[in-house]
Amino acid sequence: MPQLAYVNGRIQPLADASLHVEDRGTQFGDAIYEVCAVMNGQILDWQPHLVRLRRNLAELGITLDMENGPLTLQARRLIARNGHKQCIIYMQISRGTAKRDHAFPGAAPANLVMTVRRFDFAQRIKQLATGIGVITQPDNRWGRVDIKTTGLLPNVLAKQAAKQAGAFEAWMVSGDTVREGSSTNAWIVKDGRIITHPVGTAILPGIARSSLIHLARAAQMLVEERPFTLAEALAADEAFLTSTTAPILPVVRIDGQAVGTGMPGPVVSRLADLVWAEVAQQTGWRA
Ligand code: PDD
Q1: Among this protein's residues, is 148 annotated catalytic?
Q2: pTM of the full structure
Q3: Ligand 1, atom 18: nearest CA belongs to which residue?
Q4: Is residue 252 scored above 80 in pLDDT?
Q5: Which domains does the chain have, with CATH numbers?
Q6: Nearest-atom index, ligand 1, CA of 210
Q7: Of all protein residues, whose CA lies closest to atom 4 belonging to ligand 1?
Q8: Of 2, 82, 145, 235, which cross-links 116 as Cys (Cβ 3.0–4.6 Å)?
Q9: What is the position in ligand 1's atom list of the atom closest to the CA of 204?
Q10: CA nearest to 161, candidates 180, 142, 147, 181
């Protein structure tokens, strides 16, 4: 079955799908995006993703001429037409196509594109047994990384550095504070307390992050939303990361140094049970 993409109201073969060369997303990174997990054909945490998408549009003053109802229908239609039960859907909305000028164009409608890719979530469950390593990189991003824009060059460079170092992720460090990963939120566990950077302007408010906080608190586990240092992370009992494409993964090495025992620990294991039970409850999917 050929892969299909959605471009401004039309579903077409991915190979033919394109935007104008003067799309503002290309020229200025003047675009926002969302990535959602789809399991068993169901979009996980769709409502929170929609809320964040609308907030991002509002923060940047981008007008999307489509309500949530039709947007949901179009997303579901693209997923169904692509035929993958386990996949991710990528949605990008730019300020539109216009003659290149930094200031906003007068009347350009937003460009909405969506793509769907098959995704192997079962591998994330296998990785719970071994955990993954991260490296650290200086956080040299702009001051509003809470807005999910396509201007991701520092994240791209950080992820590439991680890949070259044989690590799964790069943790972005500002001063001595660990903020988040290049495409994931960062967590440590110390004396049973689960610690992650607070939301604000310095991290992306991850959907997997807020879901995990909710699940952990409902299970009477202690969550602290506060900044933590790299030294704290290196001295932590356990560490982990969360995102749409990695709902929870133990971090067992930071810059080559073992975290705790150097093996996935009991708190992350318990959290992983909660996270995957929630996935099963929402979507019916089990590995
Ligand atoms: N990344 N922090 C950053 C910088 C991110 O780009 C992401 C998401 C997250 C986690 O957010 P969520 O739980 O909503 O996925 C944190 C997506 C998956 C991406 O860019 O592909």
Answers
A1: yes
A2: 0.98
A3: 244
A4: yes
A5: 4-119 (3.30.470.10), 124-283 (3.20.10.10)
A6: 13
A7: 183
A8: 82
A9: 2
A10: 181
